[in-house]
Design a protein that fits this description.
Layout: E1 3-14, E2 17-28, E3 32-36, H1 43-50, E4 58-64, E5 70-72, H2 78-84, E6 86-88, H3 101-106, H4 117-121, H5 125-143, H6 163-175, E7 181-185, H7 193-210, E8 213-217, H8 221-227, E9 230-235, E10 238-243, H9 245-249, H10 252-259, H11 263-268
Parallel strand pairs: 3-8, 3-9, 6-7, 7-8
Antiparallel strand pairs: 1-2, 1-4, 4-5, 9-10
Helix pairs in contact: 7-8
């Protein structure tokens, strides 16, 4: 499986604080890789380095928009990385609450339009054509989410949606950029068990049906076990385990990172 994303000995320091330390990580085509770890492990920092929010102190980030076309994106501005095919969601919702559901998704397409502002104001042919294309793309993406973001909701403002549907809308907006790599930061946060199950299935469908490589940060182990091809565990910016969910969840270093004590000590305390 060719790698869409490669982190090569990636390190990041904030003054004397080492946030990431020589991290190696790969995500292949149509693969779902979950990053787990306790709070402060460096999970969101990984996303911020990949998307250009932070420039790494050492190491490299390589991205392949097409097979065999890997290039370094370390230190590039976020908008340039997004145009290459990297999209993300956030821990906290970043929707335009007073805009409609359809308009929220359409905003993600305008970075690729070529019509000048005056063409849009005068409604010239190129602007009208791009507007139709943006709407068609947004409708296609929203249709992927079925009844949760069905047609009758398209004209409703985002603030009228339930919390779970707002989460889905944020994923839809990211998907509208036609990403090769999708970064999901705690997509099931705040959801009930039924909603969590639906999001788990959604992540799998995104990889299988949309052909997107996915890197997930998630604390809910039901989501991680249900959608992941591989799991990477971090602690204080260091990779402490990698492999299948069962192998990583039972790894002594992972148990110790979450529980604060070595598994043998925990067993002896029972």
């Amino acid at each position: 499986m060719s790698a869409v994303l490669e982190l090569d000995r990636l390190s990041l320091s904030f003054g004397g604080l080492r946030a990431l330390s020589e991290l190696d990580l790969q995500v292949g085509e149509r693969e779902v890789v979950s990053v787990i770890g306790p709070n402060g492990a460096g999970k969101t920092t990984v996303f911020n380095v990949i998307t250009g929010v932070y420039e790494p102190s050492a190491g490299d980030v390589r991205f392949s928009a097409r097979p065999g076309s890997a290039e370094s994106i370390a230190g590039r501005p976020p908008h340039a990385i997004a145009r290459l095919g990297v999209a993300r969601t956030f821990q906290t919702l970043r929707l335009f609450m007073n805009m409609s559901v359809l308009e929220n998704v359409m905003t993600a397409t305008y970075g690729g339009t070529k019509a000048m502002p005056w063409e849009s104001v005068l409604r010239l042919p190129r602007a009208r054509r791009e507007e139709r294309e943006a709407r068609a793309l947004a409708e296609d993406v929203l249709s992927f989410f079925g009844q949760r973001l069905a047609g009758y909701r398209w004209d409703q403002p985002a603030y009228s949606l339930s919390y779970a549907n707002r989460r889905r809308l944020e994923i839809a907006r990211a998907l509208a950029t036609k990403p090769k790599l999708l970064l999901l930061d705690e997509p099931a946060a705040g959801m009930n068990p039924a909603e969590t199950h639906e999001v788990t299935e959604l992540i799998g469908r995104l990889a299988d049906e949309r052909g997107v490589a996915i890197l997930v940060i998630e604390h809910d182990m039901h989501v991680v076990s249900g959608c992941s091809d591989r799991v990477v565990a971090l602690d204080h910016g260091v990779k402490i385990a990698e492999g299948s969910f069962d192998a990583v969840s039972n790894h002594p270093a992972v148990v110790e990172a979450y529980m604060g004590r070595h598994p043998e000590d925990l067993a002896g305390a029972e």
